[in-house]
Specification:
The complex is a heterodimer. By secondary structure, chain A is α/β, with parallel strands linked by helices. Chain A has helices at residues 3-11, 55-68, 91-100; strands at residues 30-35, 41-45, 75-78, 102-103, 130-134, 142-147, 153-157. Chain A is elongated and about 60 Å long. Chain B is built from nine helices and no strands. Chain B has helices at residues 8-38, 47-75, 81-86, 106-127, 133-161, 165-178, 190-197, 204-221, 244-258. Classes of the chains: A alpha/beta, B mainly alpha.
Chain lengths: 160, 264
């Protein structure tokens, strides 16, 4: 396997500190692994929400993984552009979120302002009869919902 | 001293100084507004709104960190985001005067937030196309978050304005009290004009009608009246503040000033 492939595999094993069922690769945080002209590897990562308190921790975890995996000389860079969006969460990542009890983002259904809720599926019973309780939840990336069919309160990974 | 006699180094540094000040203005508006919102934690009318205001605060402080770090690099004096946030006094802060106004009741906080969210939508929307790639990247990232903030604040503006007689009356009162700070939002000075000439910053008077139209439309939906009072051209972005900023900075900066370099 190429060195780039090894780094991708290595980083796919780094869990997101807030939602550990997801890796930072599932979340779309790792943007690029590239070999430079001088032979060094360059790894580019991107922050999710500006206010995400886990950003510094994630950078540290990536560094640690690179150092521990034999890539201590790899450069680690942060890129803001193009801005991260929930559309970058992989299909596998979305399934892992659902299995964990968090409704994955549904980019096609953006909620109207005020009380109206977007039609989000309940991660427990799949019903679309759900209600938005609050646009903001336990972390900057989540909103709070409740399923009217099965009564389950759940987090929804909000669209950005 | 006349400007003619300005030393060469100072003249050469002037464009960078203007650039730095421009970025600081954006940074400080986000930081100060974020700090104000954080004052609600544990005090909001409902748990959901407590979470919402804290989340908005986190986003704004996150944006401020990106902008402050950049301003520090432009300044080139070795000050990082923390030095700029915690070790400057009020006259060195360049935030819009509206951002530092006290929280008041929930209606006051919502009206202040909504006016500034609508302002940030225009500013970040324009800065996304800035010739300064770093600023454009920060703006593009912040714009997505601002859209979410605006949806929240404009949603509450309508619920409160078009709500009960009491919520309507209190929201109108908040609007009447805060309207006088809005003249500063799109009033350009020589820094704005200089950066506009370099393709970095937008022309503020061109953005003002868009902001106005959005605000008018929301006010109609909220059954609120646009205040007749003439807004006064405050100069927070030039470091001339209302009496409230110092009181906001005191608790925010106390720890770093009393225990320099303290870390978690």
């Amino acid at each position: 396997m190429s060195a780039e492939g090894q780094v991708w595999e290595l980083l796919a094993g780094v869990p997101d500190p807030e939602i550990p069922v997801l890796s930072i690769v599932d979340l779309g945080i790792v943007r690029e692994v590239r070999r430079e002209a001088d032979g060094r590897l360059r790894v580019r990562i991107t922050p999710t929400y500006s206010g995400c308190p886990a950003t510094d921790l994630i950078r540290g975890l990536v560094r640690q993984a690179l150092d521990g995996g034999g890539f201590a000389d790899a450069l680690l860079e942060e890129a803001l552009s193009p801005p991260w969006s929930t559309a970058w969460i992989s299909a596998a990542g979305r399934e892992k979120l659902r299995a964990f009890g968090i409704a994955p983002p549904e980019e096609a259904v953006r909620g109207a302002r005020g009380g109206a809720a977007a039609a989000v599926s309940c991660p427990r019973c799949s019903s679309r009869d759900t209600r938005r309780v609050s646009e903001f939840g336990s972390t900057p990336c989540k909103a709070h919902y409740r399923c009217e069919a099965c009564g389950e309160p759940f987090d929804y990974f909000k669209c950005l | 001293m006349s400007t003619v006699a300005a030393p060469l180094a100072e003249r050469a540094a002037a464009p960078e100084a203007a650039h730095c000040r421009y970025v600081l203005r954006l940074a400080d508006t986000s930081l100060v507004l974020g700090q104000r919102l954080a004052e609600w934690i544990g005090h909001a009318p409902a748990l959901e709104e407590d979470l919402a205001l804290a989340n908005l605060s986190l986003d704004l402080i996150g944006q401020a960190r990106l902008l402050l770090s950049y301003a520090g690099e432009l300044e080139g004096a070795g000050r990082d985001e923390d030095a700029l946030a915690f070790l400057r006094d009020a006259p060195e802060f360049l935030n819009l005067t509206l951002a530092e106004q006290p929280n008041g009741d929930f209606a006051h906080t919502i009206v202040r937030q909504w006016l500034l969210d609508a302002w940030q939508l225009e500013i970040y929307g324009a800065l996304e196309r800035s010739s300064d790639g770093r600023l454009a990247a920060i703006a593009a990232k912040s714009l997505r978050e601002t859209r979410y903030h605006y949806r929240f604040s404009s949603g509450w503006l309508v619920r409160l304005g078009d709500g009960t007689p009491e919520s309507h009356e209190r929201t109108q009162r908040a609007l009447d009290a805060l309207w006088r700070f809005t003249a500063e939002l799109f009033a350009p000075d020589e820094i704005d004009e200089h950066l506009n000439s370099r393709g970095i910053a937008p022309r503020l008077p061109q953005l003002a009608p868009h902001w106005s139209a959005r605000v008018e439309q929301d006010l109609r939906e909220a059954t609120l009246a646009r205040p007749a009072t003439q807004p006064y051209p405050w100069q927070g972005k030039r470091g001339v503040h209302s009496e409230h900023l110092g009181h906001l900075l005191a608790p925010m900066q106390h720890l770093q000033r009393s225990y320099p370099g303290a870390r978690w």
